[in-house]
Write a structure and sequence with these properties.
The chain is an alpha+beta fold. Helices cover 32% and strands 15% of the residues. It has a three-stranded antiparallel beta sheet with strand order 1-2-3, with no helix packed on it. Strand 2 and strand 3 form a beta hairpin. The longest helix has 22 residues.
Length: 81
Amino acid sequence: MATSKITNMGALLLVFGMVLILGGGEVKEVDAKICPQFCYDGLDYMTCPSTGSVHLNPACNCCIAGPGCTLFFLGGTTKQC
């Protein structure tokens, strides 16, 4: 019975040691965001600061389009992202 406990404890320490050695690498921080899964109806095109006044295929919403972009709707209205 005592030998069984020592063996189990040794196996557990071995597993934890392997996790620390193999999985103990760097932890990297990632900038991620969750975008809502909807698309505005009636989008015509969009412009973004990085492309100037070039008419781009519109993204579904501002979260996907990115900051500074403008969404243009078929009716003439706009949405600044």
